[in-house]
Write a structure and sequence with these properties.
Elements (H helix, E strand, L loop, with lengths): L9 E5 L7 H6 L8 E5 L5 H4 L7 E7 L9 E6 L3 E5 L11 E8 L4 E8 L6 H13 L5
Length: 141
């Protein structure tokens, strides 16, 4: 029998616009803690996402489109977890690759959550080449 106390729960959803769904989304979270909330398509600008508050969670990492509308990715991290944002804004191109990441300082190990999205109308070749570069060329913090 496995020990269910050590389950690390991560939630992902393409929310397709968070502004009008925030209350519904926040109340739908499971009774057991989800440690990481990853949402794509939040459709928020920088100043809007910084004002989003979800009880017991901190904004861990984000990418917001500046020119094109909609899109965007972010990671909310449960308040019980210490973390550090990894700045990947220079790796982003609005329609082709939207990426954010956070390093989690867990009790037994350090873990990096990388959240990547590509618009269906984006350039797949660019997305693939950029992803391979991210994995093969280590960056310094």
């Amino acid at each position: 029998m496995s020990n269910t106390n050590n389950i690390f729960k991560v939630y992902h959803q393409n929310i397709r616009g968070l502004k009008d769904k925030l209350q519904e989304f926040a109340t739908s979270l499971f009774p057991e803690p989800l440690y990481i909330l990853c949402l794509t398509g939040h459709h928020l600008k920088e100043d809007e996402i910084d004002m989003i508050a979800i009880a017991n969670y901190n904004l861990g990492a984000k990418f917001c489109r500046q020119v094109l509308k909609n899109g965007g990715v972010y990671i909310f991290i449960h308040g019980s977890i210490k973390f550090m944002n990894i700045n990947l804004h220079n790796s982003c191109k609005e329609q082709d690759i939207q990426i954010c990441a956070a390093k989690l300082n867990l009790t037994n190990c350090n873990t990096v959550i990388i959240y990547i999205y590509r618009s269906p109308s984006g350039n797949f070749s660019y997305f693939f080449k950029k992803n391979m570069r991210l994995y093969l060329e280590p960056t310094t913090q």
